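Write out the 3D structure for:
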Amino acid sequence: MPPDHARCPSFEDHDHAMDEPMEAKLRHNGEACTAANRFYVHEAMARSFAGRLAERSRDLVVGRGVDESVTLGPLIDRTAVTS
């Protein structure tokens, strides 16, 4: 795999642009082959970016995909586990 595989650049206005990195990493629960593996962030904003990413990650609600309050559904269900 090339070193730049599935990269996601981030720009100075990352408060406004935080949706893009979240989508890049979590599209299809992060199982898509195109899910971001690394973020390129200028060192001047690395701490802030990491903090915002962690904050947004903590806000995720994991559960059944049919529940409207859920923002991140399961990867597998009980039937798939037992079959």
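The beta strands are 7-9, 38-40.
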